[in-house]
Specification:
139 residues
Length: 139
């Protein structure tokens, strides 16, 4: 397994994965950083200070995105890695939102559909980057 490929894929996925929920928040007039604060609450569940939540979110999101990127890059099929990545994003959403998130008030309060869309976009991007990187390296 090429860890660098997974880290790159996870980093790209992490950067673009929040687009759906951010757009949804802006369109609906909600706070576009609320999902970020919710991610911070994974590490600091009782924290109310937004600066601390942002710092915790950066760490949480970075570690989780890179970890999933490495894991997915190692298991995504050579054929149709983008579709498989998007499907993996749905599985990750079930774990993140259904198992971990339901225990955290701030995550539970987030609108579900944009959060699931974030995860699908993350998986899609990981599949695209990992698949393309694999093609370029001739694997």
């Amino acid at each position: 397994m090429d860890v660098r490929r997974g880290l790159l894929a996870g980093a790209v996925g992490g950067l673009v994965g929040g687009i759906p929920s951010t757009v949804h928040a802006v369109v609906t007039g909600a706070d576009p950083l609320e999902a970020t604060y919710a991610a911070g609450s994974i590490l600091l569940p009782h924290e109310r200070d937004r600066a601390r939540l942002l710092a915790a979110a950066a760490l949480t999101h970075g570690v989780v995105s890179l970890g999933w990127g490495v894991a997915l890059a190692g298991i995504l099929p050579r054929r149709h890695p983008v579709l498989a990545g998007a499907a993996a994003g749905l599985v990750i959403a079930a774990l993140d939102l259904g198992v971990v998130g339901r225990r955290l008030e701030r995550v539970r309060r987030l609108p579900l559909t944009p959060q699931v869309a974030d995860h699908v976009v993350f998986g899609f991007a990981v599949g695209a980057v990992a698949g393309r990187h694999r093609e370029m390296r001739g694997h």
